[in-house]
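Bumping with the actual sequence this time:
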Amino acid sequence: MNTTEFDELIKALSHPVRRDILLWLKTPEQYFADQEHPLSFGVCAGKIDQKTGLSQSTVSNHLAILQRAGFISSKKVGQWNFFSRNEAAIQAFLQRLQQQL
């Protein structure tokens, strides 16, 4: 990971809503217990929309930024998109951050 890529990851985490989404996805059973689909699929985008209270398009943009950064992954099941954390990518970022600081 070069410096430019690392800076992009930091930018992806710069918005509080994106950090909230990552927190919620860390323990989805705590934040999305009412989801109809199994949490093993991930968390449905609609549930994330509801939790943020923001428009679907705004949340989609936040999810896309997190996905491009590699912090989350998506899975399409039928008409629904489910999101989950990419723990390996998050750990790699944290190691790099620790090295830098």
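The tokens above came from a reply further down the thread. DSSP finds six helices and three strands in the chain.
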